[in-house]
Each structure stands twice: as C-alpha cells, then as structure tokens.
C-alpha cells in the first residue's frame, strides 16, 4: 500500500470504542484535570487529558478523522494533527479499547487470604457481585424515594430529639458503660451493624449499575471487620449515585437504631431502661455519623471527593502543601485557582477536624476520670 493509500485509509477509518468501556467525568488531580478510561474486561485504567477525552468520547463508529478534526477545531480553536490521531488510536488499540480489538486475558484471581495472623484479609464469598445482586432483588423496591423519604425523616427526628438534651447524653453513656450485661450485647449488635453497613454499599452499588468485586473479613488483631469492595465508583452515572453508594453504610447504621428510638419513646420517662437506651442511641449515632467525617479512609471522604470531583484529595493536598512550603507561590504556579483554593480549604478543614477529635476525646476521658 502506498503512502497516499495509507493516508486515505486513515482518514476514512471510523473507529468505535468497544462495548462497555468506562469513562469517568472530569476529575481534578493535582494541577491537572483528567478523565479515567477503564477496560471492561481486564479492569486496566489510565488517565487522559481533556483534549484526548474529547476525541475518545467521539469514537462511536460514525466519525472519521475529518469529522473529529472539525469538531476539535470548533472546541479548542486548534487543529488536531493527523499524527496525534494515529498515535491515540494506536494506544487505544494496543490496550484493547477499540471495537474489534482482541479480548485481553482476564485479571488473575487474587488469593482468598492475604496478610498474617496480626493483620490481613480473607475473601468469604466466591462471587460478591452475584451475592449483592441477590440481595438487591428483594431490597431494590425499598430504595424508592417514596419509601426512603419517610425513613430519612424518622432518622432526622431521632437525632434531633436525642441531641436536644446534650446534658443527658454523657450520663446515659456512662450508665451504659457501667452495665456489661447491656453493653456486651449492644457491642455485638454494633458489630453486625457494621457488617450490614458494608453490604449496604454493595447493594446500593448494584442498584446504580456498579460492580462489587469482593466481600470478606479484614482484621487488625484483635479487631475483625467485614469489608465490601465496590469497583467503578468513579464511573457510576451522575453525582447522586456516587453519594448514595458512599453514604449507604452510615445511613443503614442509623436506620437500625430506629427500633431502639421507638422503644425509648414508649417508655415512661422515669423508667431506668430509658436512660440505658439513650446511651445506646447516642453511641450508635456517633458510630454511624463518624463515618461521614471527610477524612480518609472514611465514607465521608469519598463523598467529598465525589462532590468536588477530585481524585486522591488528601494525598494531592499534602503534595500541594509540600510544594508551597518548599518553593512558595512560584512552585504551585501550575495549579489552577480552583485547585489552589480547594487544597488549601481541605487542609484547613482536616486540621480543624483533627483538633476537634483530639479535644473531644480528651474531654471525654477527663469527664470519665472525674466522675
């Protein structure tokens, strides 16, 4: 084939992405805005910039080079070089992302158990995606907004009634801690609540088309907790889906406290069990809400990252602060104004939350010692 014929073939080629390729919305990563592209079979992912994303998003099998060049010029006021078009298609083809590309080998199965006696994890189900799918079938109708709005209102009412009398909470918590016969069963209940917390992430992910790759146990001796790994968080459709999946665990923890709140509401105010239930509710609410704190690795951190469309917010904040300390404003000149404001604000928020946590813990310890 002559060079002219090869060039004509390149210009006439109408490439299409293979079915199932995942593309994320724009994400802030350091000074750059990137999109993630993920293979549907191998799970391999890589980043591209806004210009590459613009071209990739138009590979639907109906456009050739001339079509994309015209749209590219209209969007960026630049001409897309033919060499860049050829190089990008070559990268996509090599990674198996174009229609007609050979299927790559599926990822190797990870070992069921990793780590040591003191620290590690173990997968407990063979097909986590199938298990969460089975759970979603009967539970899916409960995710309807007409069901969830009254439940959310009950949760808010429970929290509002409890915190309306903050002076009672410490005494109720101390009363709970002094009664092992009630504390131990409640601690077991909280452990199972955490297990359901993890499964809630998986069921919510299935509701929005996400992929659940693992369900297992993770231990840091002597603590043992369940975990549920949701893949494709960043590729879920829309911001609402991401926030719901990330917050589903804490929300389920709060829902599980509603029977205790109802029990407390029907008791006589002079009944000693009412104080005990107040302590249980307070501990349970603190345990659930603490997961919404926007610090890694908590669910609140994921929610903030989704809401801000920022990837690796905490590590990128540390990198930004280190550059700023070492080189001043010139060292971070490549960061756009939004990135500078976001990383600075998150650094201040993180420091304030850590100080608040230390102050709260210290106050609780002092009150316990002085009681």
Total DSSP helices: 14
Main sheet summary: 4 strands, antiparallel
Mean of all residue-level pLDDT scores: 89
Q: How much of the sequence is in beta strands?
A: 5-15%
Radius of gyration: 26 Å
**Which structural class do you get from the secondary structure elements?**
alpha+beta
* Terminus-to-terminus distance: 90 Å
Fraction of helical residues: 55-70%
Q: Uncertain spans, ≥5 residues at pLDDT below 50? A: none
| Beta strand count | 8
Give the SSE order as H and E letters.
Answer: HEEEEHHHEEHHHHEEHHHHHH
Broad shape: elongated
Draw up the topology in text.
Blueprint: H1 3-12, E1 22-23, E2 27-29, E3 32-38, E4 45-48, H2 50-56, H3 65-76, H4 82-94, E5 113-115, E6 119-123, H5 128-139, H6 145-163, H7 166-177, H8 180-207, E7 211-220, E8 223-231, H9 238-255, H10 258-266, H11 272-290, H12 299-308, H13 313-327, H14 337-370
Antiparallel strand pairs: 1-3, 2-3, 3-4, 5-6, 6-7, 7-8
């Amino acid at each position: 084939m002559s060079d002219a014929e090869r060039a004509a073939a390149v210009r006439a080629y109408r490439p299409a992405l293979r079915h199932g390729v995942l593309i994320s919305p724009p994400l802030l990563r350091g000074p750059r805005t990137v999109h993630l592209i993920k293979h549907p079979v191998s799970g391999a992912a890589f980043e591209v910039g806004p210009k590459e994303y613009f071209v990739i998003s138009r590979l639907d099998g109906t456009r050739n080079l001339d079509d994309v060049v015209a749209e590219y010029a209209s969007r960026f006021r630049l001409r897309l070089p033919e060499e860049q078009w050829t190089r990008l298609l070559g990268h996509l083809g090599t990674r198996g992302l174009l229609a007609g590309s050979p299927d790559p080998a599926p990822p190797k199965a990870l070992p069921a158990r990793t780590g040591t006696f003191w620290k590690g994890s173990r997968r407990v189900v063979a097909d986590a995606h199938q298990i969460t799918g089975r759970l979603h079938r009967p539970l899916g109708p409960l995710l309807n907004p007409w069901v969830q709005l009254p439940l959310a209102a009950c949760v808010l009412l429970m929290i509002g009634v409890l915190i309306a009398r903050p002076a009672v909470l410490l005494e109720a918590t101390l009363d709970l801690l002094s009664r092992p016969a009630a504390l131990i069963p409640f601690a077991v209940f909280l452990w199972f609540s955490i297990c359901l917390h993890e499964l809630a992430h998986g069921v919510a992910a299935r509701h929005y088309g996400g992929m659940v790759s693992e369900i297992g146990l993770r231990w840091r001796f002597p603590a043992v907790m369940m975990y549920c790994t949701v893949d494709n968080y960043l590729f879920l459709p829309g911001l609402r889906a991401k926030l719901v999946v990330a917050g589903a665990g804490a929300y389920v923890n709060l829902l599980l406290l509603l029977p205790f709140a109802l029990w407390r509401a029907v008791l006589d105010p002079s009944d000693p069990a009412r104080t005990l239930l107040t302590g249980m509710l307070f501990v349970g609410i603190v345990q659930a809400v603490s997961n919404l704190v926007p610090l890694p690795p908590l669910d609140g951190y994921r929610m903030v990252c989704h809401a801000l469309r920022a990837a690796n917010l905490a590590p990128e904040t540390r990198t930004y602060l280190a550059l700023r300390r070492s080189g001043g404003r010139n060292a971070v000149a490549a960061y756009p104004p939004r990135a500078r404001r976001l990383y600075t604000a998150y650094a201040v928020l993180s420091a304030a939350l850590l100080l608040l946590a230390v102050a709260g813990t210290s106050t609780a310890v002092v009150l316990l010692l002085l009681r």
